[in-house]
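Reopening this one. Same input as before:
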Amino acid sequence: MTDIDADIETIAKLSVVPPILDVVAQTTGMGFAAVARVTDTQWVACAVRDDIDFGLKPGGELKLDSTICDEIRQSRQGVVFDDAQNDPVFRTHHTPIMYGLRSYISMPIILGDGRFFGTLCAVDPRPAQINNPRIIGMFTLFADLIARHIDAQEQMLASQAALADATTVAGLREQFIAVLGHDLRNPVAAITAGASILKRATLSDREAKVLAMMAGSADRISELIDNILDFARGRLGVGVNLDRRNAPQLEATLAQVVAEVRAKSPDRLMEIRYALSETVWCDDHRIAQLFSNLLANAVSHGAPDRPIVIEASSDRQAFQLSVSNGGVPIPSDAMPRLFRPFVRGDMPSEAQGLGLGLYIASEIAKSHGGTLEAISNLKETRFTLTIPSQPSIAEGVTAVRTPALA
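Same output, byte for byte:
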């Protein structure tokens, strides 16, 4: 289908066009009325009312240079005369002479974005009383109405195309989640189990190092799978899955995360301050995931000669967990994008992951009805999680996306 064919189809779908042409014919008494598509090379009738056997039907074409509409396209101004034979401008014009026209009116149809679509026009071989404000105003109004309906039709088609694309993408995303959830998890679990069995055997130092590397890689793959699954669920609107309960052992859970990070980075100094006076109603596994992401970030980007400070506290109102480190501040222009997915910052390539850690951490905070906030300056970079401590408080909190940071 050509662009002109599409334009003809668009006008054919507009239910307002036939009544407009009827009103034009009845009000002016003129025998031919049309909506024409006018380009820099073509004049094509899109809709027609022909009571004088002018001979044009929808899709019919006139030579562009034989029409007055080409002049209207260039000037974007309407043209109207009651009788060409008595008009000082059009008595010698080639169009009335060629087609035997006496009366003529044509107004430009200009779309909302400024594009020139064509004209709403009427002609007759007899004179007509049309060059007056009432008729000109009516034509101007009808041309604008047709333009608005064309805009609405185009917007509807664009929305339908976007919806079809979104539906396709959603289907592919669900398939992708299924592949991650089953086809990748199973082999990774097999590798992990195999590595666990091999650890019991007597191994040389070299074999033990290779096995440890394999086990670490399997753990890393599992972490990436979890992150991508959480990201996909968030994009689907499902949100991060939570299993919330009173977590009296939350301090032990946090200590376990610290121990795991220390095992990988034994040289990093950490200062830990816990003041958990109240039990926290949360998903402690998700809190551990969030904490692990924040702590890993601090290890990766903090100054090695300055301690990482970990603080956790709870009272009857809220649970707070913060991780801070010294070093080069996060650039101010990166702060508003900090919790967006696939934002990795200026890191060496070997330190880059998928850039989902902070995004997922913020989604965990949101799912708990809390916030994850960040500050970064020459003194420190600090991430702080705040969530309600008690079920009665948390249930009354509307979960909101982690706020963008200035």
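So the earlier flakiness isn't reproducible anymore. For the record, Residues 346-354, 396-406 have pLDDT under 50 and may be disordered.
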